[in-house]
Request: fold
Amino acid sequence: MRLKDKIALVTGGARGIGFAVAKAFVAEGAIPVIADVNAAGAKDAVEKLGRGLALGVDVADAASVNAMVAAIVDAYGRVDILVNNAGVGGNTPFLDIGVEEWNRTISINLTGAFLVAQACAREMAKAGGGKIINIASLSGQRGGHGRGAYGAAKAGLELLTKVMAVELAEHNINVNNIAPGAIETEMAKFAHDGPTRAAYNYLIPMTRYGTPEEIADAAVFLASDESRYVHGHTLNVDGGFRAAGLMFRGGKSAPSA
Ligand SMILES: NC(=O)c1ccc[n+]([C@@H]2O[C@H](COP(=O)([O-])OP(=O)(O)OC[C@H]3O[C@@H](n4cnc5c(N)ncnc54)[C@H](O)[C@@H]3O)[C@@H](O)[C@H]2O)c1
Reply:
């Protein structure tokens, strides 16, 4: 019960990593708020979790974000934990990406995270503190094919986390990132074709995709008091993908689909 009665907002929590995080938080005693552009999915998620509040939100829209935070404060009086998880994928090659796709990706994955974090941090500052966990990505650390907009947004989020950590420390708000590697979710099913999967499995020392539950375990640590002196940090949860250099595995030299 490391998060007993903590009010924990998880954006994009209707499915995937966000839902797994909310489930793990509930197991630790938290009261989840699932806020998602898929409002019906958020409602289903709260029903499955057995407690909490479901809200529809578009994180890229400031008015929608403000209404979401007002509804949480109305219901519970505060926000203790934010997991800034809502996001969209994207795989368009650099030469083909249009400004519309670029703007949409940045507005949800970076501007959206900023809007939600700022609105929650203002409430946390008033209440005397809180925990913010931004869900960044390996794609924000390494140049991946087709990751121009997505990677740029996630790299921006990683830097924003550092600035937030610096400025929000005095308000007792603890801010960190989780950078997932390849995690088996609907987003990965959409974005990763057969050859991409084979390449990931070859390049990841643990030779497999991660699970949403493995991200959730890291989020519980960063949401709990046990991480109180971890601040402005990016915790990669990636099966060693970031750490790896050249690998020889029994003569296997190239991925095959
Ligand atoms: N799956 C991976 O391999 C992976 C790897 C690295 C990082 N991530 C990041 O983890 C987070 C969750 O990814 P996932 O794989 O669970 O994705 P997912 O597509 O399964 O879930 C994303 C959720 O966000 C919601 N959402 C999308 N746009 C929104 C908006 N504008 N406002 C509110 N909610 C919105 C969706 O409705 C959905 O419920 C994302 O930020 C993603 O970039 C995922």
About this structure: The first strand starts at residue 7 and ends at 11. The chain has a mean pLDDT of 96.
